[in-house]
Predict the 3D structure of the following.
Amino acid sequence: MIWTLELINHLEDAPFPATKDELIDFAYRNGVPEIVIQNLQEIEEEGEMIEDIESLWPDYPRKDDFLFNEDEY
């Protein structure tokens, strides 16, 4: 399972918390690339709730990770 920023961004609007099957269903309904669906299918937690994107990819960058001042823009 390989996540990149481009791939994981397809799940940004996913209905978290969700199960693996719910995320796969979301991915199919939203037409995400097949590699995202394959990554979701490789998740081992059958029936367990996935709380957020960080549960899938702990290194997921958030706004706080970038060094810029939003007030300047």
Summary: The chain has a mean pLDDT of 87. Residues 15 and 56 are 14 Å apart (CA to CA). The helical segments are 5-8, 20-29, 34-41, 53-56.
